């Protein structure tokens, strides 16, 4: 017997196949996919459900068939944009068990808000009508660790890498003394997630969309070992 999520994916595949057989347009086929997630709250729920499937070994790997690919020919309709680290151990669509066209992902070391990444997120907000922005950090982030190094060490890095590290430094400045290295690293990554959320909220287009309730901005901390994401959704979780 199929799991509920697998059943939903199978039902969608069947409906798309039926639509193709009826001669439906690509727009009509894409509309079959768009009805599931229409609010920020639904977007958060979809990501939580997908991650629960992933870390429990119940992933359904949705939307990978030929019919699904054809449904995206005319355009894309992701429901969430994710600013994530480039770390190869953090494959965003797999972590949230999402299929083609569901997530708009920006990946840069340290999941920092830089010029090009911000422009990309503004595109997602202005032209793709996403309902959620997430900053996704992860356990043992090398870029965050680099931002905690002495200045003479950072100065040995290439120019552009130094620039990236400096976008993280404010989040780890004044980090309290924590003897447990793993705990200290987790706190540093969490601080960076909160700081990057704060930077996003300073941008006029994002601030306006959040104030109007069109989007929510949240954080996530991915544990590589377990596969679980800790969601930072409430304001007390995101405050600096």
H and E string: HHHHEHEHEHHHHHHEEH
Total number of β-strand segments? 5
Name the average pLDDT.
87
Indicate the low-confidence ranges by residue numbers. Answer: none
Q: Strands across the major sheet, in which order?
A: 2-1-3-4-5
- How many helices does DSSP assign? 13
**Radius of gyration computed on alpha carbons:** 19 Å
Shape category = globular
Helix content: 40-55%
Q: What does this entry look like structurally?
A:
This protein has 240 residues and is of the alpha/beta class. It is 50% helix and 12% strand. The chain has 13 helices and five strands. β1 (80-84), α5 (92-95) and β2 (103-107) form a beta-alpha-beta unit. The N and C termini lie far apart (46 Å).
Which keywords apply here?
alpha/beta; 240 residues; 50% helix; 5-stranded mixed β-sheet; 5 strands
Topology:
Blueprint: H1 4-21, H2 26-34, H3 40-55, H4 66-71, E1 80-84, H5 92-95, E2 103-107, H6 115-127, E3 132-138, H7 142-147, H8 151-154, H9 159-166, H10 169-172, H11 181-201, H12 204-211, E4 216-222, E5 229-232, H13 235-238
Parallel strand pairs: 1-2, 1-3, 3-4
Antiparallel strand pairs: 4-5
Helix pairs in contact: 1-2
């Amino acid at each position: 017997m199929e799991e509920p999520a697998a059943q939903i994916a199978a039902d969608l595949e069947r409906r798309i196949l039926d639509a193709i057989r009826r001669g439906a347009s690509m727009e009509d086929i894409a509309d079959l996919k768009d009805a599931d997630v229409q609010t920020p709250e639904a977007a958060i729920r979809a990501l939580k459900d997908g991650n629960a499937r992933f870390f429990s070994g119940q992933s359904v790997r949705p939307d990978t068939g030929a019919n699904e690919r054809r449904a995206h020919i005319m355009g894309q309709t992701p429901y969430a944009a994710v600013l994530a680290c480039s770390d190869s151990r953090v494959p965003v669509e797999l972590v949230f068990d999402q299929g083609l066209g569901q997530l708009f992902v920006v990946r840069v070391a340290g999941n920092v808000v830089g010029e090009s990444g911000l422009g990309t997120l503004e595109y997602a907000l202005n032209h793709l009508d996403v309902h959620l922005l997430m900053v996704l950090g992860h356990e043992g982030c090398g870029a965050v660790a680099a931002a905690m190094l002495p200045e003479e060490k950072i100065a040995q890095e290439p120019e552009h890498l130094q620039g990236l590290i400096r976008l993280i430094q404010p989040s780890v400045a004044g980090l309290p003394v924590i003897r447990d290295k793993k705990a200290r690293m987790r706190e540093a990554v969490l601080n960076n997630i909160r700081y990057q959320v704060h930077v996003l909220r300073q941008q006029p287009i994002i601030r306006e969309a959040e104030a109007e309730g069109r989007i929510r901005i949240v954080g996530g901390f991915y544990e590589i070992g377990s596969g679980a994401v800790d969601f930072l959704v409430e304001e007390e979780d995101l405050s600096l």
